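Researcher: Structure for this, please.
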Amino acid sequence: MPKLQIDTPLQNELEYSKLGFLFLSISQGIRKIWEKPETKIIFLVIIARIFFIIATHYGMDFDFYIEIAQRVLAGEKLYTDIKSTHMPLVDLIYIAMYTLCPWKQNIIAVRIFLKFPFLLTDIGIALAVMKIIEFDKRKGFSFEEKLTSEQIKSLTRSKLIAGYFVAFSLPLIFQTGGGRYDSLMIFCFAMVVYYLQRRNWFGVAFFAALGTSAKYIGVIFLPFVILWMKKEDLKSFIAGIFLGLLPIYPFLITRPVAFIEGIFLRGSHIAYGFSLWHAIFIIWNKFSMKYVDGIESTYDSSGEPWFVSNLYFPLFIAVYGLIFTLYVIKWWNTIRTEKIEDQKLTSLVNFVFIPLFIFGSTFKAINLQVLAWFTPYIALKNKLDLLIEYTFLTLIFGIGLLFFESYNVTAFEALSLQSAGKGSVFYILLIRPISIIRDQTSSTIWVGIIFATIIWYLIRTSIELGISTKEILSIKNNKLKNPIEISNS
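Model: Predicted structure, token format:
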């Protein structure tokens, strides 16, 4: 008996219906994903950085990272054969990504591979600040509770604004696009705020320790928060510290002296960047600066007066100690009777970032990427004015520094070719015009511009430090008495 056959037109119509349904389901799924504020921000973070990631890098730093990776793969050892001053996690990431790169002779491929982890941490910073905002706005609501359409719109708007601050932070874009690793530490600071909100001391300790495994100042905020711990939190805190420091143990055990010497060498950096001590050195040197043409020259502090080399650390300790003492006096009774998760978000952000402002105002070598450190602070406190000023500082200081370094012609040309390549967009639009203008101007002009940006940075950063300190010392304004409602404000 012959099998019943469906007419071909009907069969085709059914197939088309299935395909149409599948296409509709996929498009609806994509639309739902795209409608999430997190998706939009991830897209913007990538778009804002991808050109810089592919097109150029900071020659002196990035080429040093590549050299470290090549030497380790050739059998040399970190901290003994290779005098690295990085914390281990940073070098291990660069080595791992260089090893994974299958096109090591292609500089664009190497750039993408070595910068990729820090693009991810930029995304992580954005997502962290958005989650912090969401948690703060939803206090008093169950996360299963349905919000009204107006509340959802307000929450989405607040998350997007915080995400925009991260996505379009020019200091963060430039340091990540140039191939530096600071966004890993910045991500850890953002995660500390995230876990303080939830009173998760394992998370606080883990990201403090992980940040320290990337940059030695990762634990700088801990004195401001560990006072809030209760006895039952101690075990989880110790476990977090132990796990976060895992990248350090192999070097601390097998080559302790070389490792410690390498890390402590960072204290020998010359006065540089936005540092108060750099400004003093410029005046002392009759408006003349040092040329930096390699990693080694960043440790050549010859010619610096004794007080530049010896007073910066006591100043840091004095300012930190004063603010911390005032904080303890003001907060002691509150710390004993209340929980840290019940304090305003502003207070939590200040606890974490005030120590960074102190460091950024007093230390000896404060490079351009310091402006990126405060990105979560700016995003969580909606500091558009601070972002704008730090953006202009990034541009003016960066251009001034390029012009100044161009007078060291041989070194500048070599670094320019390494960073961008002679036929690249950056070389044509930036390096070549600088070389032309250099011949028509004096280096003193650019030293003056750099000096002006240092003073601008010090004034603005000190003001922000003062504002944050005033906020935490005004304790009556820091207690969260009622849950924050989601509103259109």
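Researcher: Any notable elements?
Model: The chain has a mean pLDDT of 88. The first strand starts at residue 272 and ends at 273.
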